[in-house]
Amino acid sequence: MFKDGARRLAGEAVHRAYALIRRLGEISPASPGGKRFHHLGEGACIAFPQGAIFGEPWISVGAHTLVGTHVSISAGFVPGLDLGPDVIVRIGGSCSIGRGSHIVGHQSIVIGDDVFTGPYVYITDQNHTYAQIDAPIGRQWPENSAVEIGDGCWLGTGSIILPGTRLGKNVAVAGGAVVRGEFPDNCVIAGVPAKIVRRYDAEDGWLPPMKNRPTATAEELALLSLDGLRGLQELQDRIRGEDAAKREQAG
Hints:
Shape: globular
Number of strands: 24
Order of helices and strands: HEEEEEEEEEEEEEEEEEEEEEEEEHH
Radius of gyration: 22 Å
């Protein structure tokens, strides 16, 4: 009995200590780590533990952008290089970068505002060439090609954004897609290599058509704007209640 009580108390102490460590380890505009960045906007936060982060003077992160745990963001090959006068990795405001993702820049990666990614997304503007047939590919000189991801895009879990990619606004990238090339606004892309599987036409709407789904009401959007978790909790409770009502009707 005593051992069980001691174990419970020790476990609680460990979890509280780890929660404190996570809070103290976050990178924010006011933290020492945040001051190394070219820009880290108001309300931005890079969660602890971080992945590999270096080249901070050439990295800009917009206001209220949240970066998940184990995310790597780098500019250049290794820490300590002088990469010139220009920002290399620019992440816009109000973005959410999923845990375990990698953003690896050498020339230019521009991510717009309100871009959301699932976990384990990989974005890079550099790849090795394959010009010399007899040389190991990993030892051949790399080439850079700028990447641009438009405002409002969604990048699904495990998607890979290769050098030279240009995504328009509000492009949805399916999980696991390997993306290279230019894609217009308001489309859905999927596959390896990624291709357009759905697009929006101003006259005909979505092609092929989407299933009819209810849109968020003004009241539901207002709940999301509440401070803290209160709005999300109320919205979650409402969705749970609606699901239960549907099951009762179906039964």
